Amino acid sequence: MSALPDRAVAMLAAVHATPGLTRAEASRLLGIGSGAATEVVGRLVAERLVTEGPSTPGGGRGRPTRPLIAHPEGPVVLAAIITHEAWRVDAVELGNDPLASTAGRHTGAPETAVLADLARAVGDLRNRFGGRVRGLGIGAPGIVLDERYVNAPGLGWTDVDLATMCADAELFIADNDATLGALAESTRGAAVGARLALHLRVDAGLGGAVVDEGRLVPGARGTAGEFGHLPMGDPAVRCPCGAGGCWGTAVDGGALARLLGEPEPPDPVTYARQVLARAGTGDHAARAAVDVAAEALGRGIAGLVNALDPDVVTLGGLGADLLAAAPDPLHTACRAGLMRFRRATPPPVVPARLGEDGPLTGAAERAWGRWWGELRR
Ligand SMILES: [Zn+2]
């Protein structure tokens, strides 16, 4: 396919963001006239990128309108995620509606076995969708360098090249799961429309990202957002990163275990979920530990709000669970740490709307974004 004009790519991205958009809505959104919109839609339909759905009654004026939707033979991206215990690959069409999904578990399996399983799943989906596949985005729970090499202490992976699971490296793009969760919340979740959004995800560690008007702030090497390693925790506690006093060590499963006087859990995420469940069923010690971790999360959020000035803070993973379990300790600690001028209108601190699907949705968004760039070339 030849390069598309910028306005055609913008129209494609608009249909992706809002499937069912009408031609009139799209032309308003893009700031182009109806003649130009008709021409652009004609091109996109001819290239089998979008199609027009069945007529629906128009917005009150009685004129039928045909919504723009994904073409049934149109582009597909593969979105994959690796967590500490499982993996999943989805094939999604424009608008991120899933067409197929494959998943597996991998606890304790070596990286080569996990990547071989993923490569098989990706290969099966590529066979099934053939030339329709325009990209593969993948999220991993670790630092991702150069959009492919992952260092994930929780998995015991060092400099693992994720691109080996995809035969066409040029289709491939990898990123940190918390960063992808941030992108997903800003495109389809609780931070849509925010000028500056801060997303924090607590899992085995604490990560996140800043999204500036819908665009990730990636840092020079693509590794920005390691907020869990700000020294806002107990300096006496060593973090697996090598530093002391990291904030992440004050809010995770390890923190809950220390507060409860229990041994360091081998699987801190599962352990934290168990403690949250105990707190919910009237275990006072668990309740108190959850409150202290929620306060530590709230205090750190205040520091980031003071520094970054976001208009919304979204919490994913165990962060959302701590917010649900102990909203008052979290909000009170956050408020106490805010600069006075911020207290009248503090940014809302809310759970991520996409929940555990956030990083996978973000992986799809990264793949689509990469493809939009290619179409413009
Ligand atoms: Zn650290």
Summarize this entry quickly.
This protein is α/β, with parallel strands linked by helices. The protein is built from twelve helices and 15 strands.
What is the straight-line distance between the termini?
Answer: 11 Å
Estimate the global geometry from the Cα principal axes. Answer: globular
Main beta sheet: 5 strands, mixed
Q: Which architecture of the largest domain would the CATH scheme give at its second level?
A: 2-Layer Sandwich
- The Cα radius of gyration reads 22 Å
Discrete helix count: 12
Q: Give start-end ranges of low-pLDDT stretches.
A: none
CATH class of the largest domain: Alpha Beta
Q: What ligands are attached or bound here?
A: zinc ion
Helical fraction equals: 40-55%
Give me the CATH superfamily of the largest domain: ATPase, nucleotide binding domain
CATH-defined fold name of the largest domain: Nucleotidyltransferase, domain 5
What sequence of helices (H) and strands (E) makes up the elements?
HHHEEEEEHEEEEEHEEEHHHEHHHEH
DSSP strand content: 15-25%
Number of strands: 15
In what order do the strands lie side by side in the largest sheet? 5-4-3-6-10
